[in-house]
Amino acid sequence: MSNRRFAARGLSRDEIAAAMATLRADDQSWDDPRNLKASYFAGEDVTRIATEAFAQHMDDNVIYGASSYPSLPAYEAEVVAMGLDMLEAPEGAGGTVTTGGTESIAVAVKTARDWARDHKPRATAPEIVLPRTAHVAFDKAAHLFGLKVRRMAGSVEYRADVAAMADAIGPNTVMIVASAPPYPYANVDPVREIAALAVAHDLWMHVDACVGGFVLPFARDLGHAVPDFDFTVPGVTSMSADLHKYGYALRGSSLLLLRDAALEDYQRFESSDWPAGRYATMGIAGSRNGGPVASAWAVMRYLGRDGYRARVAKILDAKRRLIAGIEGIAGLAVLGAPEGGHFAFVSTDHDTSAIALAMTERSWMLARGEDPAAIMLLLNHRHGEIVDDFLADLRAAVDDVASGRVVAPGEGAVYAL
Ligand SMILES: *Cc1c(COP(=O)(O)O)cnc(C)c1O
User: Fold this and answer.
1) What CATH number does domain 304-400 carry, 3.90.1150.10, 3.90.550.10, 3.40.50.720, 3.30.930.10?
2) Hey, which of 19, 77, 377, 379 would disulfide with 383, CB 3.0 to 4.6 Å?
3) What digits encode the pLDDT tens for the residues 102-115?
């Protein structure tokens, strides 16, 4: 490692470029079709639209939107309106653009907590009831905002165990969650049944559609079987949908949507006792780059519903072919019946992590799951191109493991470290 101190002399532009090339040498290429990790590539044209819009606003600060950059709240209002329309929100709904799924979930948890202070005063130690697979961002939010998590011990057919969730509801429960779909297993939870629990017990219900929000509505349009998951389901209070996943905006953008804009009173932070003046924000950040929301606006307007639907059609076609191929290989099984753009599979005969290693050695970039150890594929519209190569290599990888040429690396799955 070179000198880590802060050098007195600055580098030239060429030296910076050379140093960055060295640092980036081992980085994965996100738009490589062999990348089946979270790589939401929607085409060179979409990338260009997103980056040009981002570049125009990358020096603008969302927190000064109202005073200095009225375009930014205008983009946000339109992005929220399009998201509400896509997820079938009723008149009078509201929403916010946040920096990502984790912030959307954190703000939903904080808003539910503050709503419960008014509506459920007997819940003195507030709790959230989570399916087994709900994103770990709920635990992070509960940690930050002083709630307790009751995460279920298991799933039923890879979906939320609704009976266990019903049993877990108690006097301190304020919030209940479903995912459409969850990141692990990728099977949409029974949103209607969980929402019925929310109605019966007067709970805040959040549907986490971070990864599915921009896939499922178009899958449904295309005639695929998609269980009800959005604001058409009575009892759904809030939803998250990531603009920077299948919304194809640049990283740093997600939607938090509320059935009723009046609930924003529990979301907003306000202070009027500070020498710099009044301060109010709807999210966690203070200063925020204008680029992500501009990129989201530009991509949504560029693609329209037709553009998203065309990409979802290709994704689901690639998924169908991949699943048919995987299930045709002895000992491999897809988990459940995933409805969105990603899915997981396991080996019932061999160590799945060894198969993942054999695929990595063949230069595939894969995501992993555990409990059970699984390989996860997150598809984008280009993955139709690699289906045959992928399946051929997968057959060879299974043979490698069966014959003992490749053995398990002996470590668990890592989502983020
Ligand atoms: C990605 C994801 C999140 C978290 O979103 P970030 O943008 O990574 O913070 C939450 N829930 C689900 C289902 C996700 O797939």
Assistant:
1) 3.90.1150.10
2) 379
3) 999 999 999 999 99
